[in-house]
Amino acid sequence: MKPDLSLVDPLDYNLATRLAVGDMLTRVSWLFPDRLAIVDPDGSEISYRAFEVASEGVARSLIAEGLERQEPVALLLPNSWRFLASFFGCAKAGLIACPINIQLDVETIAWILEDATVTTVIIDRALLPTLEKAFRNNRRLKLVIVVGDGPEPDVGDRRCVAFDSLLVDGPGVSIRIEDRDIVHCLYTSGTTSRPKGVLTSHVAVMVASLSNAIQVGHPRGEEYSVLPIVLPLFHTTALDTLALPVLATGGTVVLGASFAPDTLLDVVERYRATHLMLLPAMYQALLASESIARRDLSSVRLCIYAMAPMPRDLIGRLARAFPNSKILLGSGQTECVPATVFQWPSNQYDKSDSWGPPAITVDARIIDPDGAIAERDAVGEIVYRSPHTMSGYWNSAEANRVAFEHGWFHSGDVGMVDRAGVIWFVDRLKDIVKSGGENVSSVEVERVLLGHPEVLECAVVGSPDPRWGEAVTAVVVVREGTDLEDDSIELELLNYCKEHLPRFAVPKRFIFETSLPKTATGKIQKSEIRSRLREHG
Amino acid sequence: MKPDLSLVDPLDYNLATRLAVGDMLTRVSWLFPDRLAIVDPDGSEISYRAFEVASEGVARSLIAEGLERQEPVALLLPNSWRFLASFFGCAKAGLIACPINIQLDVETIAWILEDATVTTVIIDRALLPTLEKAFRNNRRLKLVIVVGDGPEPDVGDRRCVAFDSLLVDGPGVSIRIEDRDIVHCLYTSGTTSRPKGVLTSHVAVMVASLSNAIQVGHPRGEEYSVLPIVLPLFHTTALDTLALPVLATGGTVVLGASFAPDTLLDVVERYRATHLMLLPAMYQALLASESIARRDLSSVRLCIYAMAPMPRDLIGRLARAFPNSKILLGSGQTECVPATVFQWPSNQYDKSDSWGPPAITVDARIIDPDGAIAERDAVGEIVYRSPHTMSGYWNSAEANRVAFEHGWFHSGDVGMVDRAGVIWFVDRLKDIVKSGGENVSSVEVERVLLGHPEVLECAVVGSPDPRWGEAVTAVVVVREGTDLEDDSIELELLNYCKEHLPRFAVPKRFIFETSLPKTATGKIQKSEIRSRLREHG
């Protein structure tokens, strides 16, 4: 049934008809070469022309270094325009960008580099002293590209290249890219102690970009969006729902290295930001700024937030502070690139505890354990279908089988859908805590805690928290005879966790009990613990 | 490099991750079951629930009739909600919908049915007496589905089914659909006397829908677009840029069987239309309506027009008649599904003769005959790259080779791109006339004219026309001795053309000359004729 294309050159045909993420940048930069694409955290302003030349330079250089189609490239970089040029460089070269959470512990990063069979890393010079340990013993790694000035670092017998030496102008990169080629791999914490690599295709990223642009109203043309980004680009939220939809529609992203309320308010005023996307705790900090009443925040049309519904009074205060802005809750997960649900404006007050209806390119349902779709208002696992579902977990055939069972992607979230198609989150099936934009594996934190001699048993869950969405909470049973009167054991466990876990995974709260609720077969009932925490705090 | 998905059921995996045009309707109808999807030309109002049930019914029935994956189904239907249910039914069943221009002559339709290897037609009962001739001798056709009440027609020994008997509720259709499966095939006139089937994939249609929604500002959610459609759905403009983007974003389409100014103004007021898309001549007729000054046209936010820039005074009058509306020129072609270029609002007056910059998902360039990209302001062929380029022409390997040469889709239009990325149309490379939304093959009209005994030689070209965009114009050299004093020969040729050509292809104008401009090798110089017509009328 397919057309007879035997006379067509396959590369010519691919170039003229393909769906490729790198082409989104080519299009915009051709049309708006002098427009501001990115403001770096250091304040430097990058035009679309410069950004395209840099991205093409990265692509051309990586190919010249001998990297082959669909080879993975790890990014160990903080927010910067070079992060985005690295991402687009990989996309244009048909490589897989693997941005890695630089806050992870060295051991986990080392494990990811092995799991993803990484041969090339692009790393910030400031991170080298710490993270070099992550690949010191990696025998597959052959190329280290260093961002930042300075003497050539010691990277063993590997080839070492300065990032900026890649950024030379030259002929456009023309290689074949297929719809379902992988464009990025992001590691996400699941129920096992090791994170899983989420493989995402060009189709998924481009459809998600266009879908997001419609959902949050990015215009395209003479008017365009301006969006400050303080969330880390190594996570899908900042990369796929913030940076890419804005860049695909010719807008400007203003990158921040971290969140500081007054710096962000300065950026909003200076660049006339049209959109904001922050965690609820960040909006609280913004509203607490002493200077906010004097600010001109009239340019902002939409304040997006994520992770969990905000209290109604916070929404009201936010709406007053940003007089021309709507407030929008978005929810999602790495496996869906990531946005799956966007709240309706009218639900913001009436159904303020709900997530909202599925996004325009997403089907959402509640599924029974036997795979049947549940009735409205019935509780079960939330499942999704979408062209921006991941292609699969890397090296995890069993996880893929479970993830796609019954023709739906299984989110691991328990909830219900009401008559209006609005999704309500009830509980988490997967044993993870979503805290401050990070997925924390409960099992991993429990494994560490159980390694402490005083801990007999423990359960790590999320408890509702206005600042973190969920706070990592450890419910601990200690050995008989341990002194619980002063807080020395709590301090002891806290320090022990800080030593053995990445910062974001360290419990915010310890609760000491004499026993944990269990099933008849002796399994700890986490849903019971979570439900007690929700009700009694 | 692809993930190991060996444990995943292929159908389950496909359902959870696929990009399929039919799923766009599933999503919207699940969320807005009671919202108005379509108003039929007969006035009946179809909800999204009813539309989804009907489309699933068509899909289920076609599969039950034994049609196999990617089998073509011809639609011989005027504008109606059943046209759109047929289209979505085919899309959901993994079949190729082939909407055919019902204004074509019977012989050409017969040829298309053969070329597309059609086994099933869905046909309006009112068209049967005329168009039955088109498949009377077709030996491949096995199933005739008839829209409209009445006794069972005589369709030979083929199976005959009433369309409405397909529309029964039942379990959802779950079949595998791949990104580049073909979802529709539209025949378009080219330089040869026979039209070519343009094969379009699910990727192309979905990306075009999302791209269009961004370009023309379809919101999605509690606010939504309302769009009257009077252009015929068997053309890509009405189907792919009007109906599908509105339906994909949960809006309402109000179908008209044909264009009548006061009926359309009634629709705008009654349904609070947010968008309009008409040909320039239709806007002129609208403005000439005696009732327009009394109308409430405040709901319209965007008036889109196509084919050729409108005169500045018409744009000004339109802007005054629709007080809240912007005016937008869009250009494109069937091979690009179709929108490739959208004008900037600011160019509407300053560069009112230009087409505008490429659409968000399209690269446009000017190419030299040797495949090199031309400098800005240089004249050459306009070429495109886009994920919504066609998959290819059906049964036309040589045409595909030419169409995709040098890694670009060749439009057949000659133009230039200025420093601002704005495209200016100069001339047509392909020998077609674009008149009133139809492509007319010059060669086909010339072939007919040359069949008349009095015609010695002739050239058919388009001349600029405020009503038709281009008017089909025949420049004719008649035999010596033919009387040119009265207009009898003109009337004679006009009637001869009416007899042998579809209505839209009949020349609007005859010009009699004693010779035609020719190259040294004797080839008629059409560009010379077109340029004379542009300058001297």
Question: How does the SSE layout of this entry go?
Answer:
Two copies of one chain form a homodimer.
Chain A: H1 10-17, H2 21-31, E1 36-39, E2 45-47, H3 48-64, E3 72-76, H4 81-92, E4 96-99, H5 106-115, E5 120-124, H6 128-135, E6 143-147, E7 159-162, E8 182-188, E9 196-201, H7 202-216, E10 226-229, H8 236-248, E11 252-255, H9 261-271, E12 275-278, H10 280-287, E13 302-306, H11 312-321, E14 326-332, E15 339-342, H12 347-350, E16 363-367, E17 380-385, E18 392-393, H13 397-403, E19 409-417, E20 423-428, E21 432-435, E22 438-441, H14 442-450, E23 455-465, E24 469-478, H15 488-500, E25 509-512, H16 526-536
Parallel strand pairs in A: 1-11, 3-4, 3-5, 5-6, 6-7, 10-11, 12-13, 13-14, 24-25
Antiparallel strand pairs in A: 1-2, 8-9, 9-18, 14-15, 16-17, 17-19, 19-20, 21-22, 23-24
Helix pairs in contact in A: 2-3, 2-4, 3-4, 5-6, 7-8
InterPro entries (chains A, B): AMP-bd_C, AMP-bd_C_sf, AMP-dep_synth/lig_dom, ANL_N_sf, ATP-dep_AMP-bd_enzyme
Protein name (chains A, B): Class I adenylate-forming enzyme family protein
Domain AMP-dependent synthetase/ligase (chains A, B): 32-394
